[in-house]
Write a sequence for this structure.
């Protein structure tokens, strides 16, 4: 029985070893295949299977839309060909630029904002992300969403949340990085504000606010005439941030803009007046009139929010999500 197969990837032919995923075969043979988490959680490696069959290692239905599933999209990192295959992926204008940290400030006890001045412009769609690599920490690349609209393509801002003893994130949160060199590779991802007139529900948790701030800032500049409801989940009051910026978005927004902060760990004696519980438990209260949803934050939150929205009747094709998989 034949053990190795061949794959045609955007017109180039590669070989697939026994039990090898499409992604690892492509990378091994120097194809610049888009990828990030490599565990089936981010959809960066999605591609269209135009001929042949694959065996999927995990269920891709959480990260691919119904439309994509119907159109034979697969995750290259989770697909093992069981015969010769042909796949196509969208080549993006991804590039690597070098830059210097010109701004570093704490947003909360575990989230730091980094601003990077780059030597050459890097354009992106607000909502997308990039990989950062510090010159002083080579080969440790971490993905972060652009946190502002792309008004100055040589100035990039990211929110870095400390994950355990994460090598990259601990440095960013605990050490002084001002003046340090780093490289930024991007843009990646397909999370951005879709055109249209539908009212928007945003569900964000933790540092998941970054791409949302970028998208909303862009929408405001474009004078998008759509109502926005932003549900923001955090643990405690000290985990809320960017409140002044959200307030100014709200004040400048041409139509209704509702901001609903929700705390999951709220002590009984606290004077907190906002929502208490999990952010996903509040979706039902705010679903009326919503035509599109944008979800961003920890995978458990995103998956639960998606499930809730679908059960409340929102079309899965109108749900866009960015699951923040954490790597230490
Ligand atoms: Fe395949 Fe993230 S790289 S899903």
């Amino acid at each position: 029985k034949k053990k190795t197969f061949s794959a045609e990837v955007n017109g180039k032919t590669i070989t697939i070893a026994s039990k090898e995923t499409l992604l690892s075969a492509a990378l091994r043979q120097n194809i610049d295949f888009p990828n990030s988490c490599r565990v089936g959680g981010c959809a960066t490696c999605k591609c269209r299977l135009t001929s042949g069959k694959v065996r999927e290692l995990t269920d891709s239905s959480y990260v691919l839309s119904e439309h994509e599933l119907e159109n034979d999209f697969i995750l290259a990192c989770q697909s093992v060909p069981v015969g010769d295959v042909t796949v196509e992926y969208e080549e993006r204008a991804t590039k690597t630029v070098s830059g210097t940290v010109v701004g570093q400030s704490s947003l909360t006890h575990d989230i730091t904002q980094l601003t990077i001045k780059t030597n050459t412009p890097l354009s992106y769609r607000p909502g997308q992300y990039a990989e950062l690599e510090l010159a002083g920490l080579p080969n440790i690349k971490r993905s972060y969403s652009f946190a502002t609209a792309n008004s100055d393509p040589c100035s990039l801002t990211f929110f870095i949340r400390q994950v355990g003893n994460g090598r990259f994130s601990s440095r960013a949160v605990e050490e002084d990085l001002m003046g340090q060199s780093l490289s930024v590779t991007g843009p990646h991802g397909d999370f951005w504000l879709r055109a249209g007139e539908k009212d928007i529900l945003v569900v964000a948790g933790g540092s998941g606010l970054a791409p949302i701030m970028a998208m909303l800032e862009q929408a405001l500049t474009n004078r998008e005439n759509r109502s926005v409801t932003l549900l923001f989940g955090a643990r405690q009051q000290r985990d809320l941030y960017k409140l002044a910026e959200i307030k100014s978005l709200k004040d400048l927004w041409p139509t209704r803009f509702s901001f609903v902060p929700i705390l999951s760990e709220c002590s009984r004696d606290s004077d907190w007046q906002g929502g208490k519980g999990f952010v996903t438990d509040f979706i039902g209260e705010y679903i009326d009139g919503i035509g599109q949803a944008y979800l961003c934050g920890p995978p458990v939150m995103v998956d639960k929010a998606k499930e809730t929205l679908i059960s409340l009747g929102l079309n899965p094709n109108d749900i866009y999500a960015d699951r923040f998989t954490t790597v230490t």
User: Anything to note?
Assistant: The pocket of FE2/S2 (inorganic) cluster is lined by residues 35-38, 40-45, 75, 77 (CB under 6 Å). The CA atoms of residues 203 and 295 lie 5 Å apart. The mean pLDDT is 92. DSSP finds seven helices and 19 strands in the chain.
